[in-house]
Amino acid sequence: MNTSDVRAYYERNTRLFLALGAGGRARAIHRAVWAEGVATTEEALNYSNRLLLEQIAHLRRSHPGQTLHVMDLGCGVGGSIFYLATRLDDTLHATGVTISPLQARLAREQAARLGLQDRCAFVEADFLQLPELPPADVVFSIEAFVHAPQPARYFDQVAGVLRPGGRLILCDDFLSERGASNARSPDERMWLRAFQAGWHAPGLSSVTQVAQMAARHGFSRVGERDLTPALRLLNWDSRLIHALIRLGRAIWLPWAYWRSTVGSLALQQCLRAGLVTYRFLIFERNR
Ligand SMILES: C[S@@+](CC[C@H](N)C(=O)[O-])C[C@H]1O[C@@H](n2cnc3c(N)ncnc32)[C@H](O)[C@@H]1O
């Protein structure tokens, strides 16, 4: 699995994800988080964006009046950037990076529609090999880090763009300690493989592994939220989901959307079994 596979996956699926998934209106290609106080699907889809906004507002208070540059690595069609830019004044500038040319184009078109093109830029690039970009005060990735075939390289690249004292936020799936250990049954191993294959997720790592990689690149973990309990999982019988995954893998049609659906079912099993957790991790680049 490499970045050109991920590019092809998003080139083929982005329009389908937006049309068939719940995230179309929020321009989100990520999961809804039904945390306490969340009442609508749109609020649930924007929950991770709301947590980002809180982080940026916090940084804002220590740098009043100063222009902040935020960078979204794996920005999809720009939903998170538009959420932030429409809630913060024009001292917020943002750059979105995506491996998909289609996503970059859709995001630029939306920026122009919203009149945000002067402060929201979208770049088609590989976040494991970033081009020259202005330094950032906050870097974040929502459900994108897991796609990195070499996760340590992600931190190497972020260390090159994030200012000392700046924050790096990862909202993603992570292996639990048991998920990362050898104490998994054959079925559990199959679910993990099906999730990683269907979702192009070679970078799936545990929080401990991620914190170690981050520390080697000069980042300290300063906060963490476990959002797993706020995900709404399918309430289908686990044996039915298991049978559908097996069937999906046996047929394994060469359609990206098919494989992604099998991956989604497998992820449901992994979350239910406590092999995978969905977290919001906050790191600070050491000064
Ligand atoms: C699940 S989508 C999430 C999109 C967006 N963060 C959101 O929440 O709507 C994953 C994103 O990661 C991007 N991505 C994956 N690997 C990448 C890479 N190596 N370089 C840049 N972008 C990448 C994809 O293009 C896609 O935009």
Question: How are the secondary structure elements laid out?
Answer:
Layout: H1 3-20, H2 41-45, H3 47-62, E1 68-73, H4 79-85, E2 92-98, H5 101-114, E3 120-124, E4 136-142, H6 151-161, E5 162-175, H7 177-180, H8 186-199, H9 207-216, E6 219-226, H10 238-251, H11 256-272, E7 276-285
Parallel strand pairs: 1-2, 1-4, 2-3, 4-5
Antiparallel strand pairs: 5-7, 6-7
Helix pairs in contact: 8-11, 10-11
Give a verbal description of the structure:
This protein is α/β, with parallel strands linked by helices and 287 residues long. It has one domain: Rossmann fold (3-Layer(aba) Sandwich). The chain has helices at residues 3-20, 41-45, 47-62, 79-85, 101-114, 151-161, 177-180, 186-199, 207-216, 238-251, 256-272, and strands spanning 68-73, 92-98, 120-124, 136-142, 162-175, 219-226, 276-285. A seven-stranded mixed β-sheet has the order 3-2-1-4-5-7-6, with helices on both faces. The mean pLDDT is 94. The protein binds S-adenosylmethionine (SAM).
CATH-derived architecture: 3-Layer(aba) Sandwich
Report the end-to-end length measured between terminal Cα atoms. Answer: 35 Å
The largest beta-sheet arranges its strands as 3-2-1-4-5-7-6
- The number of helical runs is 11
**Biggest sheet record:** 7 strands, mixed
Which band does the percent of strand residues land in? Answer: 15-25%
Rg: 18 Å
Identify the CATH homologous superfamily. Vaccinia Virus protein VP39
State mean pLDDT (0 to 100 scale).
94
Q: Percent helix among the residues?
A: 40-55%
Number of domains in the coordinates?
A: 1
Query: Structural class from helices and strands?
Result: alpha/beta
Oligomer: single chain
Q: What are the secondary-structure elements, in order, as H or E?
A: HHHEHEHEEHEHHHEHHE
Q: What is the molecular shape?
A: globular
- CATH fold descriptor: Rossmann fold
Number of strands: 7
Extract low-pLDDT stretches.
none
